[in-house]
UniProtKB/TrEMBL annotation:
UniProt name for this protein: Probable alpha-L-glutamate ligase
GO MF entry, a single one: metal ion binding
Keywords on record: ATP-binding, Ligase, Magnesium, Manganese, Metal-binding, Nucleotide-binding, Protein biosynthesis, Ribonucleoprotein, Ribosomal protein
Similarity field: In the C-terminal section; belongs to the RimK family.
Residue ranges of domain ATP-grasp in the record: 270-453
Cofactor: Mg(2+); Mn(2+)
Organism: Antarcticimicrobium sediminis
Presence of keyword Protein biosynthesis: yes
Length: 468
């Protein structure tokens, strides 16, 4: 036997060969062999450093097929060095160096690659001396001495699905340092992503047709792979304007601005739910005091619920047991010029509601919240208790449809269990993770990252039709 597993077959390279860089998600690249250069170079653009300064990463994009600039592969890698490189035209440039596996004819070995953004470079890649190990011989007059690969792989959905997970740069838009924000950062970083918390109110924007941007602290914010909005109720209009700007730039936002806006406004939200024929308590509202008794009649009379439109955490929700009580609460709210709605009281819910966490169109967890003794409100902020809930098929469907009605990929859907099925009370676009992760013992933030990783993975690019 001449070959042992430790001594791979010698390879002969011509002046141009097909290679692959699997860890970067580049299964087929045509490389020029350049023995005049020490280090290999990859033609990349949008080169950007991110991640912690102790282990900085670089992300960049590659057009693996010359002339097909619509096909873009986003890559990321750890930076192993930064080096001054003088290219063949005599220009010197400080480049990032990464180390990744080179694969040819079933053999694989690590090589160093410098990243350079030179649009004039005809080959996507140059292989330098460092990459050409001892057992490679070069025949400079020949080409394609190694197995041919095809650019067709970039058009295959299966191959693209199998692409390696790359490190993402993610922004959490939040002003609060709470459990959910901390978990989002920790869980994202544990998966190798870089997660930055951005104070939404400190973002400012240039709004123009050609180059919309978001700025922060005197600088333009980088191109994030994904944005996780955690917009507090008090800053909804400005917060959603910032999200809209990210949407304009083309950044993937787990929740869109339109869905956040509609779900925040209780009247708007009820109208959206009704339009999608999703069960909810009969709800009525009016602006004029003349209509008070009609309003009470519309929801089936007392006992009924009167709710401030701005209510959160159950603070502005009142149960009026009698018609007289309802009239006086309504007139008191009107006197304060408060916006409110009147709702049928679902008595049989008995101070319990169900919070369904919907991520990526699926209920990933559900918890039951039970109000403090004697309270019809089940909010945890009002002393309620949470426990894991088993939900029925109609409840699951109502929750999924409610999140979908607002186009929310992450939503907390609250529903009441009534005698005639689930009634959706509210769809929350910034659901808290603490209560529901504790109650269910599940890694729900992880589910959110599964969804983000799936969504920002580049899809296959169609083959170009041949002319004629
Ligand atoms: P908030 O947004 O302030 O939390 P909700 O509409 O969610 O207001 O109401 C708070 C709590 O009050 C609910 O979780 C539920 O337990 C109870 N509740 C609200 N509306 C009704 C209703 N129509 N019938 C019965 N209970 C209700």
């Amino acid at each position: 036997m001449t070959d042992s597993p430790d001594t791979p077959n010698p390879l002969t390279f011509g002046w141009e060969e097909w290679i692959s860089l699997p860890a970067l998600g580049l299964p087929a690249i045509s490389a020029k062999i350049d023995t005049g250069a020490r280090t290999s170079a990859l033609h990349a653009y949008d080169i950007e450093v991110f991640g912690p300064s102790t282990a900085p990463k670089v992300r960049f994009s590659v057009h693996p097929i010359p002339g097909r600039n619509d096909l873009e592969i986003p890559c990321s890698a750890l930076i192993t060095d930064r080096r001054e490189v003088t290219s063949s035209n005599g220009e010197s440039e400080l480049r990032y160096v990464i180390t990744t596996a080179l694969e040819v004819a079933g053999q694989s070995w690590p090589i160093e690659i410098t990243l350079t953004d030179r649009s004039g470079m005809t080959n996507r890649m140059l292989l330098g001396r460092q990459a050409l190990t001892d057992h490679i011989s070069i025949v400079p007059t020949e080409r394609h001495l190694q197995p041919e690969l095809s650019h067709d792989v970039y058009h295959s959905a299966r191959v693209r699905q199998a692409a390696p997970k790359r490190a993402l740069r993610i922004a959490v838009m939040s002003r609060e340092d709470n459990y959910s924000t901390r978990r989002l950062v920790e869980a994202g970083e544990a998966r190798g992503h870089s997660v930055e918390v951005i104070d939404t109110t400190r973002c400012y924007m240039t709004i123009n047709a050609l180059a919309p941007e978001v700025h922060y602290d005197g600088q333009r914010l980088p191109r994030y792979d994904a944005v996780i909005p955690r917009i507090g109720a008090s800053i909804t209009p400005y917060g959603t304007a910032v999200i809209r700007q990210f949407e304009t730039i083309g950044t993937y936002c787990i929740n869109g601005s339109a869905g956040i806006t509609a779900s925040r406004d209780k009247l708007h939200a009820h109208q959206v739910l009704a339009r999608h024929k999703i069960g909810m308590p009969t709800t009525a509202f009016a602006a004029s005091p003349k209509d008070t008794s009609n309003l009470i009649g519309l929801v089936g009379g007392a006992p009924l619920i009167v709710k401030l439109l701005e209510s959160t955490q159950g603070k502005g929700v009142v149960l009026a047991e009698t018609t007289k009580a309802a009239e006086s609460v309504i007139s008191a709210f009107r006197g304060l010029r408060a916006n409110f709605l009147v709702q049928h009281f679902i008595k049989e819910a008995a101070g319990e509601d169900v919070r369904c966490l919907v991520i990526g169109g699926k209920v990933v967890a559900a918890m039951k919240r039970t109000g403090a003794d004697g309270d019809f409100r089940s909010n945890l902020h009002q002393g309620g208790q949470a426990s894991i809930a088993r939900i029925t098929k109609p409840e699951r469907e109502a929750a999924v449809r409610a999140a979908k009605a607002f186009g929310l990929n992450m939503a907390g859907v609250d529903l009441l269990r009534s005698d005639d099925g689930p009634k959706v009370l509210e769809v929350n676009s910034s659901p808290g993770f603490e209560g529901i992760e504790r109650a269910t013992g599940k890694d729900l933030v992880g589910k959110l990252y599964d969804e983000i990783e799936q969504r920002v993975r580049p899809g296959p690019v169609p083959r170009r039709k041949r002319p004629g």
